[in-house]
Structure formats: structure tokens, C-alpha cells
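From the pipeline queue, job 12 of 40. The input is one protein chain; the requested action is below.

Action: predict structure.
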Amino acid sequence: MSAALQVTAFGLALLSTLFLLLATCTDCWMVNADDSLEVSHKCRGLWRECVTNMQDGVRTCDQYDSILADHPAKIVVTRTLMITADLLAGLALATLVLGLDCITFLKEDPCVKLKMCYGAGVVLGAGSILGLIGSVWYAVDVYVERAMLVSHNIFLGVHYDFGWSCWLGMAGSTGCFVASVLLTCCLY
């Protein structure tokens, strides 16, 4: 039972960490279509902003200024939280691989392997919370930005949605949290 639970948690943690990495690297955190004819599709991300022409599929991207330049708080905070979540999830995966019962590393000391799995669960939980805070922070800021524009009757034709990268970040963080719960609570 313990080995099956460890392997299940590892698979979920691996998939969720990949989701977190994809969310951090991709550029569709916020989607807006500037006109009702849907001629173009604009995605804003943490690293650049891309516009896709819906008629011919041509996509052009503008990189943001240097990483040291002044950026809006939502971009800086989300970048920081997502990169930290990625690093913690990667560290937790490496620790979890060494702590799995099916791996021969430290096979003679099962107590240490169990502690490694538990530690991996704690680190994975910390990473998942940071990733969820980053994803939700960005989503709330998108919502507030849209609400401010609507309340001031500015750009009523602009439609803001959460992009697939934002949803991917939330799904990855939630999956890492579930894997963390499996490793910390259910393993004993």
C-alpha cells in the first residue's frame, strides 16, 4: 500500500510540476480581444505579449523590457512566486525519487526513506502554496483591472479572460498540493 501511494504521489507531483513549469514559461496568462469582430487575439504573459491575427494565423510577440526594468507588481510578484514554486517542486521531486521504496538508494534504512518522502511532501506543499498564490494573484489582478475599466466606462469593448497559462498554473499548484497531502498525511 505504501509503495503504491508513493508512486501515485510521484506521478501526480511529476505531472503537476510540469504544469507549473509550462505555466511559468508560456505567455497566455491574460487574454483580451480588442474588438467584437475577433480579428485579433492578444495574450499577455509573464515574459512577453503576443498578438495572433485570427484570419491568417500570424503571431507576433513583443518581449517585455529587461528583467531589471520597472514592471507592474502583478508581473513581478507572479514571476517570483512561480519561479520559486518551480524550484521547490523540482527539489521535492528529486528528494521523492530517492525516497521511493522501489529505488535501491538507502534500501537498508527504510526509516530514512520514509523521512525523505515526508520531507519531499512538505517541500512540495510549500511550492504548491506559492504557485497557487502566484496564479491567483495574477487572476485577481486581471479581474480588478477589468472591473476598474468597466466602472470608469473606459474600453468597454475590451474583454479580459484568464488565459490557459493561468489555469495551468492553478491546476499544477493544486496537483502538487494533493501530492503533498498524500505524502505527508496518508503515507503514515
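Job complete. The chain has one domain: 3-28+71-186.
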